[in-house]
């Protein structure tokens, strides 16, 4: 009876139009919002408009929207630079239906109280640095209607009742514990991706109850135990990725139907019949597979330390009559054997290492490779060793003895001369950068470094070094990507002069023409005379140039397939001496490992360039490039780095003073501004099917310039 009364009261508060506004916008909600502000923005840098003396429903609270009954229904604070924590006070906004906190720098755990928001249909916490366990209470949120997205260095998404949890980059993930068994209660779940975390424990067999699951990604974690047979029985399952865990046992035969959709690499104890790269199972493995799969965590989730016996995955009890004493003796014997084995292996490796080093020293002088000879000189200069130990690509010799150019081919049927004309030797690269001096270092990231250099002919270049571990692991795939990158030639793309790959350094260097005027980002948010203000005609010219660069990438030509850039942003658009825009990093994703590509998206996602459908599909298309291009148009028109919803609304109604850069002082063409704003709105349409092609955009741009 009490529950019924509570529901009736909640319904009355949320949907009754009888109460006066002053009562509906209660002090309780205002107090909750102020606590939320303190949690999300403790330094009051971004939510200064949230003040106690203002009605949240009057429009003075930035990012807060109310329903028609005066109750807080949406909080939209994505990409605001928030660096606090998600407070539990959010649970006091009982009529909240949408919470958008994605693309910030929030830390801490996900408050379990969020599960108490019975009206919540959209929850976006993606691209943050949240930590802790995945709240098991989420499994009880059966009322979720549209989207649940938790990007914690990883991200979740529940769309129409389904959940997506996509990894960003291992460095940013801090999730621990196990996969909650309660996720098996989300019966409408379509996609569950928990890759690249620190999740431990077993794969819950309860996930096999998700009859609508089409994709399950548990790769790059610390999961152990067997693959539950129930997963193979999910009728709609198309993709199962369990790579890079410590799984063991017999792989269910039914997973063969997934073909390439089943990925299981780097689980050395898995076995099975009919799977490429899997060994045949022993009797013990079959016994293990016949045992029930691990049930996973309890209510609170499996911890990485202090695990109870009942929480650990079951393994085969090979000895049916094993008493306690015998088991202990067996365990001790196994430990002794392991210690002896480790000592033997260590001694053997030491001897082999010494012999190898001696042979290496004797043969080193005979090596003709210029890269290796110059590496021996550089190895003594520790001050200039920047990426030596974590080096990127390889010098076209990824593995020992591998030389794809030795027989005149590059491993993909491409004649040697096609790549030969682009090849630099390491000595040229070292000389150009003064042996990678810090003075010439333009910037670096987790996977690469950029140096300014001068070639012997006097031309300025920018040299990007990429470490081997950040590149495609398959030599053929890397060479295929390298061949594609060298084939790109267009007036609005940064010109690739060549490349150099060093086996000794474990790096590959891409040599580009130097672009003197920086990137487009430097021309945004110009204040107090600090920075150059672009004239209107220059802005229009830059927009046109970017469009032509995208058109070239998207077009299919005899010697070039259609390419999706994937990471178009103001930072990737360089400005030359004539203020012509040049797209950089075109085709670079073809060289890099998938995880590295995804990690580079975090910065651009925070700026709003990522198309909304990517969160659910995990794929880039030409239409996602168009979305990023539309955002860039808004940035160029407004002169701002951040594109707001109010800016788009102003563009829809041609309120120029609200979305055209005030630094122009009114010196712009209203007709051109209106046309460009319409193109930007079309490109950033929520639905990709409603966005134009780049060819249509260029036609509209031409009409715009003709009419003006």
TrEMBL record:
UniProt keyword Glycoprotein, yes or no: yes
SUPFAM superfamilies with a match to the protein in the record: L domain-like, Protein kinase-like (PK-like)
InterPro entries assigned: Kinase-like_dom_sf, Leu-rich_rpt, LRR_dom_sf, LRR_N_plant-typ, Plant_LRR-RLKs, Prot_kinase_dom, Ser-Thr/Tyr_kinase_cat_dom
GO MF annotations, alphabetized: ATP binding; protein kinase activity; receptor serine/threonine kinase binding
Compartments (UniProt record): Membrane
Secretion signal, residue range per the UniProt entry: 1-20
Organism domain of life: Eukaryota
Record region (Disordered): 292-318
Cellular component aspect of the GO annotation: membrane
Pfam families recorded: LRR_1 (PF00560), LRR_8 (PF13855), LRRNT_2 (PF08263), PK_Tyr_Ser-Thr (PF07714)
Stretches that traverse the bilayer: 336-360
Record's keyword terms, sorted: Glycoprotein, Leucine-rich repeat, Membrane, Repeat, Signal, Transmembrane, Transmembrane helix
Domain named Protein kinase: residues: 436-708
Protein name: Protein kinase domain-containing protein
């Amino acid at each position: 009876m009490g529950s019924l009364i509570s529901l009736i009261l909640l319904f009355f508060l949320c949907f009754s139009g009888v109460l006066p506004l002053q009562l509906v916008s209660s002090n309780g909600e205002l107090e909750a919002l102020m606590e939320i502000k303190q949690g999300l923005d403790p330094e009051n840098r971004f939510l200064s408009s949230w003040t106690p003396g203002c009605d949240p429903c009057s429009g003075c609270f930035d990012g807060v929207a109310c329903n028609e009954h005066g109750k807080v229904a949406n909080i939209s604070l994505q990409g605001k630079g928030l660096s606090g924590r998600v407070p539990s006070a959010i649970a006091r906004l009982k009529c909240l239906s949408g919470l958008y906190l994605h693309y910030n720098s929030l830390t801490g755990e996900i408050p379990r109280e969020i599960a108490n928001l019975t009206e919540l249909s959209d929850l976006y916490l993606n691209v943050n640095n949240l930590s802790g366990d995945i709240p098991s209470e989420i499994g009880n949120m059966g009322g979720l209607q549209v989207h649940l997205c938790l990007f914690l260095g990883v991200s979740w998404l529940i769309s129409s009742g389904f959940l997506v949890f996509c990894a960003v980059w291992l460095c940013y993930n801090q999730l621990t514990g196990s996969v909650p068994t309660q996720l098996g209660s989300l019966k409408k779940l379509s996609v569950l991706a928990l890759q690249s975390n620190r999740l431990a424990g077993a794969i819950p067999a309860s996930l096999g109850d998700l009859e609508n699951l089409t994709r399950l990604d548990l790769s790059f974690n610390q999961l152990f135990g067997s693959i539950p047979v129930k997963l193979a029985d999910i009728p709609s399952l198309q993709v199962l990725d369990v790579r890079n865990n410590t799984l063991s046992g017999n792989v269910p035969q039914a997973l063969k139907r997934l073909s390439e959709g089943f990925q299981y690499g780097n689980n050395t104890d898995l076995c099975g019949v009919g799977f490429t790269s899997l060994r045949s199972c022993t009797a013990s493995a079959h016994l293990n597979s016949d045992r029930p799969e691990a049930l996973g965590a309890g209510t609170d989730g499996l911890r990485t330390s202090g695990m109870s016996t009942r929480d650990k995955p079951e393994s085969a009890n090979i000895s049916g009559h094993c008493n306690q004493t015998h088991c202990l003796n067996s365990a001790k014997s196994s430990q002794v054997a392991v210690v002896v084995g480790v000592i033997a292996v260590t001694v053997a490796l030491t001897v082999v290492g010494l012999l190898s080093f001696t042979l290496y020293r004797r043969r080193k002088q005979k090596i003709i490779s210029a890269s290796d000879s110059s590496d021996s000189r550089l190895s003594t200069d520790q001050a200039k060793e920047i990426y030596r130990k974590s080096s990127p690509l390889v010098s076209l010799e990824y593995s020992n003895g591998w030389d794809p150019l030795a027989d005149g081919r590059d491993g993909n049927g491409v004649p040697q001369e096609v790549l030969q004309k682009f090849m630099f030797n390491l000595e040229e690269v070292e000389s150009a950068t003064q042996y990678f001096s810090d003075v010439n270092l333009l910037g670096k990231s987790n996977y690469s470094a950029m140096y300014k250099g001068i070639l012997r002919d006097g031309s300025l270049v920018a040299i990007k070094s990429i470490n081997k571990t950040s590149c495609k692991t398959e030599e053929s795939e890397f060479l295929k990507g390298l061949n594609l990158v060298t084939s790109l030639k267009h007036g609005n793309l940064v010109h690739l002069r060549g490349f150099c790959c060093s086996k000794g350094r474990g790096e590959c260097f891409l040599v580009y023409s130097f672009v003197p005027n920086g990137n487009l980002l430097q021309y945004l948010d110009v204040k107090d005379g600090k920075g150059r203000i672009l004239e209107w005609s220059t802005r229009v010219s830059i927009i046109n140039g970017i469009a032509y660069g995208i058109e070239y990438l998207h077009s299919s030509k005899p010697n070039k397939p259609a390419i999706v850039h994937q990471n178009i942003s103001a930072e990737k658009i360089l400005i030359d001496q004539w203020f012509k825009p040049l797209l950089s990093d075109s085709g670079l994703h073809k060289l890099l490992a998938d995880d590295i590509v995804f990690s580079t998206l975090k910065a651009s996602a925070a700026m709003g360039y990522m198309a909304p459908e990517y969160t659910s599909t995990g794929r880039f298309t030409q239409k996602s490039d168009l979305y990023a291009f539309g955002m860039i148009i808004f940035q160029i028109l407004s002169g701002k780095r951040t594109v707001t919803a109010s800016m788009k609304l102003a563009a829809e109604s041609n309120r120029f003073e609200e979305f055209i850069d005030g630094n122009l002082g009114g010196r712009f063409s209203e007709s051109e501004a209106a046309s460009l704003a319409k193109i930007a709105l079309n490109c950033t349409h929520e639905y990709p099917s409603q966005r134009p092609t780049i060819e249509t955009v260029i036609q509209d741009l031409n009409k715009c310039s003709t009419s003006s």
